[in-house]
Amino acid sequence: MSSIANLSVQQLRKAAGLKEKIQSLEKELNQLLGSTVTSAASPSTTKKKFKMSAAAKAKISAAAKARWAKIKAKKPAAKPAPKAKGKMSAAAKAKLSAKMKALWAARKAGKK
User: Fold this and answer.
1) Longest CA–CA separation in the chain, Å
2) Which of 5-9, 53-57, 73-77 has the lowest mean pLDDT?
3) Neighbouring C-beta atoms of residue 7, cutoff 10 Å
C-alpha cells in the first residue's frame, strides 16, 4: 500500500470518492439490516482516557527529582587556573625592539 504523500492529486480525489461510496453503501446496508452498529472501518470515538492517581504522580515526580539531584551532585572538577603567560623582561624588550628597528631600517633602505 502506497503512502498518501506519494499519491497524485487525481489519485487522492479518486480515493476520496471511493471512501464516500463505501460509507454510503455501508449506511444503506445498515438501513436494510436494521442495525445501528457502526462499521469496523470507522474510527472509535469512545477511547478511554488513562487517569493517573495523585500518589502515582507524586511518586514519579519524586523519582525524577532524585535523578536530577544525583546528576547535579556529580559536578565536574573545577578547571585548573590558566597558566600565567611568560612575561618579557625590560631588557629583552629593549633588545628585541632594537633588532626590529634595525630590520625595518634595512628593509626601508633596500626599497630606495
Assistant:
1) 113
2) 73-77
3) 13
